[in-house]
Amino acid sequence: MIYVIATVTLKPGTVEAFAAAAAPCLTGTRAEEGNISYDLHRREGEPDTVVFVERWQSREHLKAHFSAPHMLVYREATKDMVAERKIEIVEPVTVDIL
Fold first, then answer.
1. In a domain, 96, yes or no
2. Side-chain-side CA neighbours of residue 55 (13 Å)
3. Model-level pTM?
């Protein structure tokens, strides 16, 4: 399983427009093969920061997600709203406890 935490800092005053533009992407992504969960949250105390929290079955599924049609539409619709983006990909490794 792959975990993704995508933190997006928005330009001031754009969070409502961003959320509206992201809604079709949420629906489309949740229907993608290999998607386990895909949620969008606002960060407490940071009104211009949103966080996508994602789980994927594999890196191959995540890679396919980046070129999905709804992702391309989302990126184009939100490109002028984004001030900064940080994407963290976590691939869990089993840790043996001795």
1. no
2. 4
3. 0.89
CA angle 6, 93, 97 (to 5 degrees): 130
> Does residue 21 belong to any structural domain of this protein?
yes
Sign of CA dihedral 74, 58, 83, 10: positive
98 falls within a domain: no
Q: Within 13 Å, how many C-alpha atoms sit on residue 48's CB side?
A: 11
**CA 38/CA 73 separation, integer angstroms:** 17
Return d(Cα 47, Cα 98) in angstroms, integer. Answer: 44
29-43 pLDDT, tens digit each = 999 999 999 999 998
Nearest to 12 by CA among 49, 61, 38, 42: 49
* CA separation for the pair 70, 33 (Å, rounded): 14
